[in-house]
Every structure is written in structure tokens, then in C-alpha cells.
Amino acid sequence: MLNWIWLGLVVVAIAYGGWNGTLLPGVDAETQPGVVAAIGNYAKAAVTLVIGLVGFMVFWLGVMRVAFDGGLRDRIARAIAPLTLRLFPEVPPDHPAMSAMVMNMASNILGMGNAATPFGLKAMRELARLNPHPGSASNAMVLFLAINTSAITLLPPLGTIAIRASAGSADPYAIWIPTVIATTCSTLGAVTAYVLLGGMRVFAHRPLADAAAAEAAARDALPEADLPPTPPARPTLARNVLTALVVLGIGFVMASDLARLDAPSASEAAAHVAQAWLIPLLLLGLLLFGFRQGVDVYESAVDGAREGLDVAVRIVPYLVIILVAIGMLRASGAITAASQLLDPYTSAVGVPAEALPMVLLRPLSGSGAFAVMNDIIVAHGADSFIGQLTSTLMGSTETTFYVLAVYFGAAGVRVGRHTVLACLAGDFCGFVGAVAACHWWFG
């Protein structure tokens, strides 16, 4: 799908640019660079973008690694285990599929999509072993993927925030709460669609020729994604005391900070805490959690930072390729023309037409949507409503079709039943939730 989309972007950019006379720079070359000049300009911009991301991602992934090494993900997994047992009654509680699904969901809740993928592949492989209809997605597979592609994310979307910070946003973390709201709507919508569609006869299992052999071959070809051992918790009296002292000290400082406000109301005090203290408390909480559990916080953070550097390097080719195509399309004038055509309809429901490229591309490609978000933020500003909505849409759902292709391929599934519709329902609800949350949060 993305092959066709990318090729279509290039073809439309060249065709529309030739028809519109925008292949070469206009009178004002700075604002009208032309399609040809956009190739070099956007290729350079993509590399500059990654350089701006590196420091932010390296730091925060290092901090997250401290909490991971302290067992935070395991605790979240244990907390949501009772819910997963009710959601997946056909999966035995002690089966490897259950533990893999729980760890996948816990990783997604923490916003660690890269860490979630191995657990997701392990879960699909184990669910395939339990599947009585080889080649056709089981109910557990459908629900798991619906939750996976719409996963609630409680921690800040670091990549998106890094883009906003590099674009000069006055408050790059402002989209955190709207993103939590959007992902909650997305997950509720996906699960509801799974329940409503599951009983329809059109989505019943159908026997497939040679399905068992194909499914077995796919599972055998899939590399093992075993769960890493849980680090032992080693809290000591000294660490407990130091942690308690730090918490008390920070509480005293927060109280002093609030006391400096001029008789604030409860809502004003809450708003001040959310704006000034939410991110510092998150940072301190993650570090103290790992410290209390006996983690060597500096060494652990450095290990996580290396992972952040690897992630930044890996996304360079994807960003350059897709961002150049988008830049060519924008320079041709096609995006402006399409926005003007759709704006009366989308504006009527509170959605600027400029945000529509993100809505269409997000389910197809994470890197493509990332590039679109950056382009929109550069054009309209990180703190504009369009920039805030686009940033929230980036974190509202997963790359649905990519996830389905990879996970179904791993399990040898050829008939997804109602998986696609359930996932798309989650995407739609995430979009609606993002729009509503941004209008409520940003006004």
C-alpha cells in the first residue's frame, strides 16, 4: 500500500507542478521553491530533523530504561493481568501467549512501541498454536490486534514532543493529555467494534486449503522472541530512606511554589501543577522507581540512550524518502488546492483541512506520518491549533496496516475476519477523540 502511496505522491507532484507551472521556483523562491528545488531542500530538512531529534530521544529513552530495569513494565503487566484474563477467556492463564500479550500491552501503555513488537510477535505465534482454525484469525488474535493498534498510551509521546521542541514550541508537552484521551477513545472504539462485529455470520471461520501447512511454516520461520528475564527487585533500607527523603523534599518545594501564587483557586492550582510540575515529576518518578529497586541509574540510562541513538539512525532513510515526496507535493501546490477544496466541509466539524494528510497516512506508515506531521508543524507552527491537532493525531493510533501485515504474516493468517474493521473503527474513534480533546484542551 505504501509503495503505491509514495509513487502516487511523486507522480501527482510532478504532474500538477507541470500543469500549474510550479516545477521551477516562482518570483519569491523562498516561499515558492518549486518542485525541483524541493527535492534538495526537503532531503536536507529530513536530515536536520533527525539531528534535532537525537538528543531528546537519547535522554528520554535512557530515563525509560531505568524504570524498565527496575521492573515497572512487569508491575504494569501484573496490574492488567486480571483484565486480560477476562478479555481472552479462551487463552489459558499460564499459557505463553497470555504472558506475551500482557507484556506487549504493558510496553504500549508506557509508549515503548519498539519494545512491544517482540512480545507481540511472540503472542501471535503462541496464539496460532491455540488456534483451532489455521489460517483464519481466532477471536483472541482479532481482539489482541485491535488493542495493539489502538493501544492506550499513558506516558508522553516522546518522538512527537521532540519534533515540537525542535520546532520552537513554547510548550512541547501540551499534547500529552489530549493524546491520552485520544488513545483511550481509540481503544474503546476498537474493542467495541470487535464485540459488535464478532457475532456476524459474514465473519465466521471458513476452512482454508493448505492453511495448516502455511501456518506451521510461518511459525517455524519466525525467530524466537522470548521474554527477557525480569530483573530482581533489590530495594534496600538506605535506598528506601533516600527515596522517601527526596519525595518529601519535592513535596515541600511544590507546596512552596504553590504558596507563591496569589490565592489561586483549585482549578488554577491544578493547572499550574499540570503545566509546571507534570513533566519534572514524571522524570523524577521514573528515576526514583529504578533507584529504589536497586538499578544503577546512570549505567542503565546510558544503555537506554544507546537504544535511542540507534532508533534515530534507523529512521533517517524512511524520513528522507517520504519527506522529499511530501515536499515535492507541497511545492507543486497540490496540497494547497486540495485543502481549499475540502476546507468548507472539514472546518464545519472542527477539523482543518491541512490536517487531513495525517489522518489518511497514519494507519499506513509511521515514518510517513512522522514526516507529514513535521511538514505541517513547520508550515503552520507547533503551537497553532493545526500543529497541536496533528501532533495529537500522530499518537492517537498505531500504523494499523503495517502491524496487521507483520503480525498476520508471522502467524500464517490469511483470513483476518473482522480484524481490519475493528482496527479501523479504533482509528476513527481515535481521530474523533483527538479532535474533541484538542478543542477542549486548547480551546
The outline comes out as globular
Helix % is over 70%
- Our count of domains comes out at 2
The SSE string, one letter per element, is: HHHHHHHHHHHHHHHHHHHH
**Total number of helices:** 20
Helix/sheet category? mainly alpha
Low confidence ranges: 221-230
Tell me the span between the first and last alpha carbons.
36 Å
Fraction in beta strands: under 5%
What is the alpha-carbon Rg in Å? 23 Å
Report the strand count.
0
Mind summarizing the main beta sheet? none
In quaternary terms, these chains amount to single chain
Output mean pLDDT. Answer: 79
Structure description:
This protein folds into two domains: 2-232 and 300-442, no CATH class; 237-292. The chain is 73% helix and 0% strand. It has helices at 2-20, 35-69, 72-87, 96-109, 113-130, 139-149, 158-166, 176-198, 211-221, 237-259, 266-276, 278-292, 297-314, 316-332, 334-347, 356-361, 366-380, 385-396, 400-411, 419-442. α2 runs antiparallel to α14 and α18 (385-396) runs antiparallel to α20. It is globular. The two termini are 36 Å apart. Residues 221-230 have low confidence and may be disordered.
